[in-house]
Amino acid sequence: MDSGKQAFQQRSLSVKLWPPSHGTRLMLVERMTKNLTTPSIFSRKYGLLSNEEAEEDAKKIEELAFAAADQHYTKEPDGDGSSAVQVYAKESSRLMLEAIKRGPTVKDEEIADKTSIHETVFDISGGRRAFIDAEEAEEILKPLREPGNSYTKICFSNRSFGLDAANVAAPLLSSVKQQLTEVDLSDFIAGRPESEALEVMNLFSSVLEGCQLRYLNLSNNALGEKGVRAFGALLKSQNNLEELYLINDGISEEAAQAVSELIPSTEKLKVLQFHNNMTGDEGAIAISDIVKRSHALEDFRCSSARVGTDGGVSLAEALKTCTRLKKLDLRDNMFGVGAGVALSKALSLFAGLTEVYLSYLNLEDDGAEALANALKESAPLLEVLDMAGNDITAKGAASLADCIASKQFLSKLNLAENELKDEGAILIGKSLGEGHGQLNEVDMSTNAIRRAGARLLAQVVVKIPGFKLLNINGNFISDEGIDEIKELFKSFPDMLGSLEDNDPEGEDYEDEDEDEENAEEGNELESKLKDLKIEQGE
């Protein structure tokens, strides 16, 4: 344990936190611009800033925050920049809140524009999930018949179209297709026989062929290869797609190959999501062909897709071309250590990464260490780190702690269902102790943590302003330890998650197995010694 602590301390000393690089400063401006233009409880009260105004404010905020932090850095006694980064983050947050409360500058022409915003979206997805027949389609789609309508976005999700309803919708879609930029056809054939569903998809595809979309959602339709090819006419005509969603679509190896074959251009693609499919290694290799052509990709999801080591390595290689990536979600696959190490080489290229989800990938210590070391040297604005369920022990925790210590904008950390124990929990807890003012959620549940590790985690997070939730459930904390922790959170009870699955008498099954093995070896040795004869010398 002492050697682990010493290694962590030595690595921490080598981290140079100030000044931030020019690229990091630009990325903070970009992140603040996004926050200023994202709807929130404040924007509902004060109004939402335009992209132009938000970008201008973000640049000014960053300059002021940098100046304040830089001035602080000249007086910082330790010289590593940790407190300067904290000032940088806090000052940015304070000034950003002021900008939000100030609200947007509204021009007369903008007021006129806002009166027509609601008319650009046609959405029938509300209400209960239901079949739709021709008569209901005539009634519900009536607004599309209005001459001069300005619908650019349509959503037919949550309504199941049979062929009769599709025949009603077809001419109406044809009449507006030249103005459409976003089409959501997710979950629109549920419960239909395969033959009818394929006819409906073919009809919608042929009607919408040629419209220039930036957003297309075909999720939750159990497409398979037949369904993908049924949408062939629409997919082949898309050259400007920025977002494509194929979630829960039965995307097998053949279906993935069909997607790769049918989409002519992914140069503008920013979001690509394949969640909950039966893709496998060969399918992942086909998806990799799409990914490596998508140089503008910012958000990639290929989670719960049955991808093993070969497919994981292929995806990792393809992702090296996506240097603008901001969000990566590869959860719940069977990558193993080899794919984890391969992925680490890609992660080192993602300077703008803000969210990374790598839970349940069978990474073990070696894979986790490779990824943590790569992230430490990149992704300065990382906000979410999820590496739950990877059999990470205290050995891997040292590298993770190093990485976490350098992530001053981290807001959510999930290391649940590993094997960190007290030693690993203490290393992680200490890494959160300085300059993590943005942190609001930590999940260290089910890690065989006992009293010492749990207490240190609680002592650290309870001091963080704005912290929301610590989950240490499912561990082996003694009753006395639970009392100590509850006392620490007595003024903030909502910040401490449930402890109902904690087992104060919990045992480490790994230690039990070792004891059993030792006992078996002892019994075997004892039986051999019984027959041992001492030979007398001459």
What would you say this structure looks like, in words?
- Residues 14-109 form the WPP domain.
- Residues 500-524 have a biased composition (Acidic residues).
- One of its GO terms (cellular component) is nucleus.
- By secondary structure, this protein is an alpha/beta fold.
- 48% of the residues lie in helices and 8% in strands.
- It has 21 helices and 15 strands.
- The chain has helices spanning 2-13, 22-36, 41-46, 51-74, 82-102, 108-114, 134-140, 163-176, 194-208, 224-230, 232-236, 253-262, 280-291, 309-319, 336-347, 364-376, 394-405, 421-431, 451-461, 479-488, 509-530; strands at 121-123, 130-132, 153-155, 159-161, 182-184, 215-217, 243-245, 271-273, 299-301, 327-329, 355-357, 384-386, 412-414, 441-443, 469-471.
- The strands form 2 sheets. The chain has a 13-stranded parallel sheet with strand order 1-3-5-6-7-8-9-10-11-12-13-14-15, with helices on one face. The chain has a two-stranded parallel sheet with strand order 2-4.
- Strand 14 (441-443), helix 19 (451-461) and strand 15 (469-471) form a beta-alpha-beta unit.
- The chain is globular, with a radius of gyration of 28 Å.
